[in-house]
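During the reporting period the student researcher (J.K.) took over the structure-prediction task from the postdoctoral fellow and processed the backlog of single-chain submissions. One of the processed entries is reproduced below for the supervisory committee.
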Amino acid sequence: MSLLGLRPISTGRLLKTPNKRICLTRMSATLSRQDELKKQAAWKAVEYVKSGMVVGLGTGSTAYFAVERIGQLLKDGELKDIIGVPTSVRTYEHAKSVNIPLATLDEQPSIDVAIDGADEVDPNLDVVKGRGGALLREKMVEKASKLFVCIVDDSKLVDGLGGSKLAMPIEIVQFCHQYTIRRIAALPQVAGCTHKLRMEGDKPYVTDNGNYIIDLYFETPMADSKAASEAILALEGVVDHGLFLDMVGVCIIAGKEGVEVRTRK
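J.K. obtained the following structure tokens:
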């Protein structure tokens, strides 16, 4: 059993999501333009990490670079006495591989700073997360953090949440999941969306917590993301969703013009 208490995942596993594939082996030495932007944002975010801090370690292709950077700074002696709290089994395995000391929320319930990516960022710095499947643990860790630093490249910016027309995930229990899916789809707050049960091969994708994910797709941005959040969470069988509202304190955006730092007003 791992530190996180659930099935460990090989660091070579390839996670299939609706719109991207995250390889957990070491990334190529030659980065794409998008990966270079992600790296720039991640390195800037790590400047918020100081020796002696407890740090929430995000999940996904952008957070990958932050974990790598923290590991390198520890190795070089530029950071000391860091404790990382990972948001997924795969981040746990990655952080272990670069020798970051780790703990759970049970052991470190107050986190100084969390660094994680996002799938969409709106002008208010509200975000959609969870296309990588780790939304529940990400939300738990980031809610426990004094500061949540979100790191993205400029392709993630939207006018309103749901505006990318890509997945907005909802984690649900396996028990009577079709019943829960029908109830979610019938909510007026998400009217007009389409929905799909996330699959991995010919079987439903199972999260680190043993749950399923339903992905919602919107043709236009949600009219009221707060109302949608409340309506979804009110349904029995829903564990949590990928709307991270009023949580981001700082958003670091890397684009062709450089790195921009936005703070919540």
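The committee noted the following: The first strand starts at residue 14 and ends at 16.
J.K. will present the remaining backlog at the next meeting.
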